[in-house]
Amino acid sequence: MSSVEKYYVIAYYHYTNIEDAPEYAEKHLEFCKSLKLHGRIYVAHEGINGTISGKIEACETYMAALKADSRFEGISFKIDESNAHAFHRMHVRYKKEIVHSGLRNPEDIDPVKETGKHIHAEEFLKLKDQDDVVILDVRSNYETRLGKFKNALTLDMENFREFPQKVEELKRFKDKKILTYCTGGVKCEKASALLLKKGFKDVYQLHNGIIGYAKETGGKDFDGVLYVFDGRVTVPVNQVNPVVISTCKRCGEFAPRNLNCANADCNEQFVMCENCAEEMEGACSEACKTAPGKRVYNGTGYYTRHVID
Asked: For residues 148 and 150, what is the distance between their CA atoms, to the nearest angstrom?
């Protein structure tokens, strides 16, 4: 019998009105700490978005508490099992948005009122290869270079705040069915809502994102690995027809590994194979390898100071 204690890693979001968002964030942090949870949660007047890790019983208590709150009616949790915490500490922060987009005015778009049609994994799988369909990845480039759906359209964005400017590039697809997807669904809520506002008529979003798709279908036709916003850095998706698409920055070999530069003053995100990462001591360049701000390479390229947009 295994003596390894099991943990959950839980990702979730919910758009809803939280009038007392700053105060709620403070109380929520204390609640999470009382359960010995670790993770990162953003609270805004428009809702909540988080990824947490903890012992199974604590996570069950946490999920039950949110489900019991009428503001979070219908909230959905994506759950993975783990042998340890995926985070080093617990953060709950009040933000202007639960995902940075610059689309803060509910009179412009409001995911509570209108978004693209939610479709589950099996329906997404049936639709995605049809001639009148465009599969649109709304994630940032450091995510899409590691993994994406076959034939998906990716946008060259450093962060999601650039999406409103990228919509102009999509106008040629206005007569197509647009299937949006992202990691867990939160970006698609605003992306699909904005597309509808800009005149796109047939807009969909993958319910529960890539995480949910992997659990429901085995990840068929998702190439590469999934970037996640915790200490795991990447997780496998495709158990059916997997391939690796990302290549090492240094040697060019295929490598499903994403690192942050060990030089804290750089912190660039890049792909590097294990051998090159060891030789470069986690740095993206020779200059960063000898920089004063270089951290000790920890073997993963994930550091607690790493700030993700």
From this structure: 6
Which one of the listed residues 182, 248, 261, 288 is annotated catalytic?
182
Q: Does pTM surpass 0.85?
A: yes
The residue type found at 74 is G
Tens of pLDDT, residues 218-235: 999 999 999 998 989 999
Three-state DSSP at 271 gives strand
Measured at the CA of 21, the angle between CA 309 and CA 28, to 5 degrees, comes to 85
What one-character DSSP code corresponds to residue 86?
A: S
pLDDT digits (tens, 9 = 90+) for 250-286: 999 999 999 999 999 999 999 999 999 999 999 999 9
Known catalytic residue at 284? no
Contact criterion met (CB below 8 Å) for 309 and 260: no
Please return the burial class of 127, using the count of CB atoms within 10 Å of its CB with bins 0-12, 13-18 and 19+: middle
Length of the chain: 309
CA distances from 307 to 53, 78, 226, 264 (A): 18, 22, 18, 11
Q: Which two tokens stand for residue 161?
A: 């705040």
